[in-house]
Amino acid sequence: MIKKISITTRSRAEFIDITSKVQDFVKESKIRSGACQIFVPHTTAGLTINENADPSVKHDILNRLERLVPFDGDYSHTEDNAAAHIKSAIVGTDKTIFIEDGEMKLGTWQGIFFCEFDGPRQRNIFIHIAGK
Amino acid sequence: MIKKISITTRSRAEFIDITSKVQDFVKESKIRSGACQIFVPHTTAGLTINENADPSVKHDILNRLERLVPFDGDYSHTEDNAAAHIKSAIVGTDKTIFIEDGEMKLGTWQGIFFCEFDGPRQRNIFIHIAGK
Amino acid sequence: MIKKISITTRSRAEFIDITSKVQDFVKESKIRSGACQIFVPHTTAGLTINENADPSVKHDILNRLERLVPFDGDYSHTEDNAAAHIKSAIVGTDKTIFIEDGEMKLGTWQGIFFCEFDGPRQRNIFIHIAGK
Q1: Do A85 and C130 touch (CB under 8 A)?
Q2: What sign for the dihedral angle of Cα C13, C16, C22, C24?
């Protein structure tokens, strides 16, 4: 059971909270116990699970990644998105979350974020649920 | 089958080897073949699979992460743990390890480490085993 | 169903595209729908899913990781591979990719790369497929 979610990003770099979209699919699947896997089929974007209470956290992560891997650097790749590829390699493009009693077992402060590093544009996210 | 392990960390930043705790649960599960997934439900901690023979390796990883993402930086988040959130995004909070013949298929030098970036405190780790 | 792939790396640091090797195993498995998990049982290597069209992308990733975590640094670990352990912790050693209609659901530009950070040498990669 694989679902495709589409989102539109609005900045070159931003984190978009997709927790409720994933939760909707978990409910729809009627799976009570198992695992939910999320996969981003892009090479200049990624996924992170992090705090969704204070929005300053996502800005701090984005800013620090920008300092470590600046948009303008001495890169060979010529499409103005080498830094985005590198950031994608650092945060990764897949996450697994458990399902118990029909709910994702996230921690109190955890949300699931799509990480845009080369927007704005249309993006896809695949979700796969296994269990019973 | 989800198990919760609780651990107590003793420093602001440290790596704690949880390999034997996970192995105990794999044995208890009686699963012979499948996958063991580990998930940390915290936003200022993470997981890494790395060398558990020479303890200097974990210190080198911690020290380099601290240099790349210093505790004191120009962060917006005000709880003195912005760096911990960023380190969590870099190492990640979920890992999958295969099970064969009832044992985790880790490499010779691999151990599973809980990464504390904002301790000391009480922490939880979820383990999920799928297979037969 | 776990398969071991062996590869020989030729440089201290390089990314090797293993997409077709993984795809061969997916076909061989006859699994039509499920998930393919890849695991590197080494502590100085890793995995990344990134662009496989322009080879400059992998060089940009390697070069930036080298700048962030230089081979020569003030490390405690004495085997001349502390930086390799740290890079492994950053990119990670496991990836999950979905399978639909008997094919891996990778994005248009995505390839699966083995990341050598302490070569050249012989390396193993484990692949596990679950589904039906």
Answers
A1: no
A2: negative
Residue-by-residue pLDDT tens, chain B, 132 positions: 799 999 999 999 999 999 999 999 999 999 999 999 999 999 999 999 999 999 999 999 999 999 999 999 889 988 899 999 999 999 999 999 999 999 999 999 999 999 999 999 999 999 999 999
Q: What is the distance in angstroms between the Cα of B85 and the nearest Cα belonging to chain C? A: 14
Instruction: Tell me, yes or no, if A5 comes closer than 8 A to chain B by beta carbon.
Output: no
Q: Where are the domains of chain B?
A: 2-131
CB contact under 8 A, B105 and C43: no
- A120 prior amide bond cis, ω within 30: yes
ipTM of the complex: 0.97
**pTM, rounded to two decimals:** 0.97
Q: B85 and A110: CB-CB below 8 Å? A: no
Q: How many CB atoms lie within 10 A of CB B4?
A: 10
Q: Could you tell me the CATH superfamily of domain B2-131?
A: YjbQ-like (2.60.120.460)
Token pair recorded at residue B43: 């936003």
